[in-house]
């Protein structure tokens, strides 16, 4: 799984420019998929069928896109200006390395410049530079030189980095775009579990696009996919660092089972099914109530006439930054939790509540 993650984080794929990630995912799923489709948006939809046609169907979605930018202006001085894709904390953007991905697929290294320490005034020390004032230096001396390198207005820009383990054998890794390439790596690992034997339910794995800018990829899919239940698999934010006194979500304490966030109230049957699957198999999990986050589940819940929907998340520190951190034990836990849930899904009562009498039609 770590190898999948290592490969996936190397690709640059801000929302709407996920082509390189799509290629990696398609290469990885092709040997294991019964059907494989890339739709007009770029969503990759993989079906792995159960042994029986009448088995339930379960969608699990993880997004391929990452927060990033597009080139907004190319100055006469050769510096690039940026427009944002997704939610950022402007404080962390200064002095970062970025890739500019040109239309030919080539990546050019740039850095988000910041005033030299020797030249700072008092105001500079106490103020945050808004992203609209940021600029990228790609070594060019003029607009003409930028253009001759193949850079054009609109080119996607993403953070630079490789997956690296923190400390010594901690099992904790840092990179940009762990959100949500780690979810993609979990889905790839899950799919490989059904290499020799078909899954207990028909599995529809969605590697989605444009999640970070409003769940746009799965919104398109939700109009025609059919499923009995849906899950999103995404990252969520740990608050176990020194800024916070009593953490709600901790790194390494297991994947989270979503109760609510800004986009979803998890369906009670899914929530209970996930909790029971975890308990039965001794997988540590955390319950998540976090208003500041949303996932693909927010769009998947509207499939057809609406389907029971929930979400599983992997806890992540320093989200939407170039130095996101996760614990590999949470990834392993997420695979075990999903595998257990799928095993039990055939017998899971999916009603919103159990009624003594059926409501009249
Ligand atoms: Zn995410």
From TrEMBL:
Keyword Ribosomal protein part of the UniProt annotation: no
Keywords: Aminopeptidase, Glycosidase, Hydrolase, Metal-binding, Protease
Residues forming the catalytic site: 211
GO BP annotations, alphabetical order: proteolysis
Known EC number: 3.2.1.4
Tree of life domain: Bacteria
Binding site for Zn(2+) 2: 179, 212, 320
Co-factor remark: Binds 2 divalent metal cations per subunit.
Cofactor: a divalent metal cation
Binding site for Zn(2+) 1: 63, 179, 234
SUPFAM superfamilies registered for this protein in UniProt: Aminopeptidase/glucanase lid domain, Zn-dependent exopeptidases
Any one GO molecular-function label of the UniProt entry: metal ion binding
Family of the protein in this entry: Belongs to the peptidase M42 family.
Protein name: Endoglucanase
Native species: Deinococcus humi
